[in-house]
Amino acid sequence: MDYDQTKPVHAGPEDGWHGVVAPDSRFTPESGRYHLYIGYFCPFAHRANLVRVLKGLDSAIDISVVKAYPKGDAGWSFPGANGPDDTYEGSTPDKLFGSKYLHEVYFRADKDYKGKYSVPVLWDTKEGTIVNNESLELLRWLQTGFNEILSPGSPEQSLTLYPDHLRAKIDEVSKWMTRDLNSGVYTAGFARNQAAYEKGVIPVFAALNQLEQLIHRNGGPYILGQELTELDILAYPTAIRFDVAYVQHFKCNLGTIRGNYPVISEWLKNLYWNVHGFRETTNFKHIKENYTKSHSDINPLAITPLGPYPDIDANVNLNFSGIKPGAVLHPLVLEQQKGLPNV
């Protein structure tokens, strides 16, 4: 995973925002200067919020949380957009401007903006503009951008998710993980015909098969072994949504994480229950209701399933060497998996 650091912050109405917070730059690290807009339902916003919490930036960067649904023609909304009774547990008002809709924040930065009104969005209160709305870019530079305002020598300041000695492996794995797993569930879920769906869903399970082997080979508790890396941040938002949303809503039902992937299941449970930041940034109500109540073409009655129950199991087994890896053995999945780099 990489990005072009020479991009202009915002090249015009058709472009997103690509600014970077760093010392001696246009956007310098300051506590309280920046504000993050997220939706708890969105796996891409989840990445940015995860790094924010893991880096101990909770008080330095406050958040505003859009409602999980409805999206509608105007895009994501804040509580109160449709009157005083328009509330949604876990969402917040726009703490900066009191906006009804997220698109109003975008138009404050560029009144002619023609792109998507997506989350995450990092806003600069000093310059009155968006810094960045690209989750992969935020994931990378949030790790270091605010280090000078963190306590010297603290675990938060020292945390890096892209260490030098693992960069080659992170870059290799992130290519197929973002393509086949993170984006793959959407390719399958939004397919408009049977052939497109079948073509889309196979790589998802090939990637899960590969991830199962990768975690097992490295011995856990993280994807590359003893160090938490960007790969864990990339995989977690998709994995935590998989059984509760993607299996039924996106028809990714060749298997489940809890039923077919015992290694991924323990990795996932360990992050959720034992690593600060993961459970705190996960909201199953927002996740389940967003998918099932925002896509009327997929789920026209907007009925949200009660299951699976529980959302995630509680007991964690950290003896990864003693777990027999699982797999989905569909012939097309196994054939697809052969094309992925060796773990």
Keyphrases for this structure?
mainly alpha; 343 residues
Order of helices and strands: EHEHEEHHHHHHHHHH
What is the mean pLDDT? 97
What is the strand content?
Answer: under 5%
Task: Profile the largest sheet.
Answer: 4 strands, mixed
Provide a count of the helices: 12
User: Percent helix among the residues?
Assistant: 25-40%
- CA-to-CA gap between the ends? 17 Å
Spatial strand sequence of the major β-sheet: 2-1-3-4
SSE-based structural type: mainly alpha
Characterise the protein shown here.
This protein has 343 residues and is mostly helical. It is 39% helix and 5% strand. The chain is built from twelve helices and four strands. Strands 2-1-3-4 form a four-stranded mixed sheet, with helices on both faces. Helix 7 packs across helix 10 (262-274). The mean pLDDT is 97.
Task: Summarize the topology.
Layout: E1 34-38, H1 43-54, E2 62-65, H2 102-109, E3 121-124, E4 129-132, H3 135-141, H4 155-158, H5 167-182, H6 184-189, H7 194-218, H8 230-249, H9 257-260, H10 262-274, H11 284-294, H12 331-337
Parallel strand pairs: 1-2
Antiparallel strand pairs: 1-3, 3-4
Helix pairs in contact: 1-3, 1-8, 5-7, 5-8, 7-10, 7-12, 8-11
Compact description:
By secondary structure, this protein is mostly helical. It has helices at 43-54, 102-109, 135-141, 155-158, 167-182, 184-189, 194-218, 230-249, 257-260, 262-274, 284-294, 331-337, and strands at residues 34-38, 62-65, 121-124, 129-132. It has twelve helices and four strands; from the N terminus they run E-H-E-H-E-E-H-H-H-H-H-H-H-H-H-H.
